UniProtKB/TrEMBL annotation:
GO terms for biological process: purine nucleobase metabolic process; urate catabolic process. NCBIfam families: urate_oxi. This is Uricase. Gene3D superfamilies: Urate Oxidase (3.10.270.10). Its EC number is 1.7.3.3. One of its GO terms (molecular function) is urate oxidase activity. Catalyzes the oxidation of uric acid to 5-hydroxyisourate, which is further processed to form (S)-allantoin. 5-hydroxyisourate binds at T57, F152, R169, Q212, N238. O2 binds at T57, N238. Keywords: Oxidoreductase, Purine metabolism. It is an enzyme of class 1 (oxidoreductase). SUPFAM superfamilies: Tetrahydrobiopterin biosynthesis enzymes-like (SSF55620).
Length: 291
């Protein structure tokens, strides 16, 4: 009996690359998860441990970022073909490559702000106690991003601070918002839609000094324009988009190619309320996700 290596492949799974086209004031956004897998003669890598033929998965990831910058992403099919051909043509041990790409679709809010399609959920929590009732409605998983109009600087620096200041970054979050109504007789659909629109347009249009600043601005507008709302609470994970350093490959990256990080993430939570609003009673009791 002999033990032999059977079918095998290796690569980098789900490289989260965001490509921004910012040649005009009307930005375009492409948001992908790219998985590469290489096949070929990798017997030595497994059997004797010799990695001479193995292009690291890290390099495959770098190739995805560099190609996003240099070749651009016209369609995921074109992008996959370019990557696959590159690996097969350039690497002697590789006789096959499989590139899997998922693309996340975004709808436009303004020239540089976008909302992810088909993600969000409308919510309500109704509390009834004795002869009273409270309604807390909201939304969750509203994924929004702006490709400019956002900075983060002037922050406190201590000996552990390495974050560079930035005056132009991608700001993105998967928003949870819940608002408490002052009453229980209302056109709920109309109110919910109007508040959602205010949240979206304020996120898009108000220049952001930080996610904290954006949340407050959104809450302020809702309370100013919707008298039926007493209070609004936000829970907003900061979905970090890190500019990829492509200099080692001689490729420029003027705010065009980003790594969309998964974890860890900043979690910014805030309440904005009228100081003369009605008592919340037990409206928030056991409602998850808020400070
Ligand atoms: O909008 C932000 N608020 C923060 O508190 C923070 N902290 C951080 O590292 N990046 C950011 N961004």
């Amino acid at each position: 009996m002999a033990i032999v290596l059977g079918p095998n492949q290796y690569g980098k799974a789900e490289t989260r690359v965001v490509r921004v086209y910012r040649d005009t004031a009307r930005h375009e956004l492409r948001d992908l998860a790219v998985s590469t897998a290489l096949r070929g003669d990798f017997e030595a890598a497994h059997v004797t441990g010799d990695q001479a033929a193995v292009l690291p998965t890290d390099s495959q990831k770098n190739t995805v970022f560099a190609y996003a910058a240099e070749k651009g992403i016209r369609t995921i099919e074109d992008f996959g073909l370019q990557l696959g051909r590159h690996f097969v043509e350039e690497l002697p041990a590789v006789d096959g490559a499989q590139i899997g790409i998922d693309e996340y679709s975004w709808d436009r809010v303004n020239d540089y702000s976008f909302v992810r399609r088909g993600q969000e959920t409308r919510t309500t929590v109704v509390t009834v106690a004795d002869d009273r009732a409270w309604v807390v409605s909201g939304l969750k998983d509203l994924v929004i991003a702006k490709t400019t109009g956002s900075e983060f600087r002037g922050f406190l620096q201590d000996r552990y601070t390495t974050l560079p200041e930035t005056d132009d970054r991608i700001l993105a979050t998967s928003l949870i918002a819940r608002w408490r109504y002052t009453g229980t007789e209302l056109d709920w659909d109309a109110s919910w839609s109007a508040i959602r629109t205010l949240l979206l347009t304020t996120f898009a249009e108000v220049y952001s000094h930080a996610l904290q600043h954006t949340l407050y601005a959104m809450g302020q507008v809702v309370l100013e324009q919707r008298p039926e709302v007493a209070e609004i609470r936000f829970s907003a994970p900061n979905r970090h988009h890190f500019l990829v350093d492509l200099e080692p490959f001689g490729v420029e990256n003027p705010g065009e190619v980003f790594f969309a990080a998964d974890r860890p993430y900043g979690l910014i939570e805030a309440t904005v309320l009228r100081d003369d609003g009605p008592d919340p009673g037990p409206a928030w009791y056991a409602v998850p996700g808020f400070c």
